[in-house]
User: What shape does this take?
Amino acid sequence: MPALLDVIGLTKHFPSPSGAVRAVDGVDLQIHRAHTYGLVGESGCGKSTLIRTIQRLLEPTSGQIIYKGQDIAAYKRAQLRTLRKEMAMVFQDPHMSLNPRMTVFDILARPLQIHGIARGKDALTLRIVHLLQKLGMQSEHLVRFPHELSGGQKQRIGVARALAVEPDIIFLDEPTSALDVSVQTKILKLLENIRKEWELTYFYISHDINLVRVVAEHMGVMYLGKIVEVGRTEDILRDPHHPYTVGLLQAVPEPDPDKPLGELQLGGEVPSPVNPPPGCNFHPRCPHAWDVCSQMEPELRMLSAEWSVACHRYGDDARAAPSR
Ligand SMILES: Nc1ncnc2c1ncn2[C@@H]1O[C@H](COP(=O)(O)OP(=O)(O)OP(=O)(O)O)[C@@H](O)[C@H]1O
Ligand SMILES: [Mg+2]
Assistant: This one.
């Protein structure tokens, strides 16, 4: 079955006085319907820019975004309207993303009215109460303002607002990182139940690999505007191949304290996306780098049907790699 979303060579560069900021720099990824994809990577690697560009909230610099068989990268303004209904977003900070002057009712009524899903007070109320119940809240919350809700309740409203338009795919940008762990767990469970019931597709962004482990069947690892490893979450976490993925995993608190940490730790800073290093972006921080790594950019190569890595250690030049 073709992927719901097939992103090909997507780039998003921002102009800046010191040169183009290569925030997203040639990303390929596929997301299948009714699946969850998790994207991890350090701060500033381009995760938010990537999902904003996929949703056409930002104009792509180049590349294709094939959604349901159509290249939406080429969509004009009028065609983007339908996209706003099919792709929804849950933001990191519910406090910032909810208008403080609107009641819960108004916040949820707005997308329903804009997209003509419900009209008139009665129809709107019926739908909104149903949505609130789905999110474990009651009709008494309808008249509340965001400041009268807890952090967890605010994010439930953020999720309800995304669900209101009956989207196919929901992008979740660190949806629970501003919440306490116990609240986080409840919201993640709720999201998963809703995804199954409504056969939704989720695209999660997170710094937290332990969260991706729980929610996503497939994951991608992003470094300085590029995907460096992609595959089944279970496979990658059991046996990471890209040296950056290995480093990221070793920086994560190990759920099993008896399991020893490996020798590699991620050192150094992420280079600037204005002047990325030549060859492989990761080579200045990589403990395995050799000549070719500073000369040639590694392509994303398939290790198996569902697993790809962009690293010369797994390419044609691998024989020249120094042995360790
Ligand atoms: N509008 C913009 N103009 C110029 N540069 C930008 C703009 N938006 C983002 N950037 C730059 O693009 C790069 C990627 O930013 P982005 O916000 O996508 O990273 P991120 O992975 O989401 O980070 P975080 O985990 O901190 O949210 C950064 O270097 C950032 O400074
Ligand atoms: Mg971000």
The CA atoms of residues 92 and 247 lie 25 Å apart. DSSP finds ten helices and twelve strands in the chain. The radius of gyration is 21 Å. Confidence is low (pLDDT under 50) at residues 259-264.
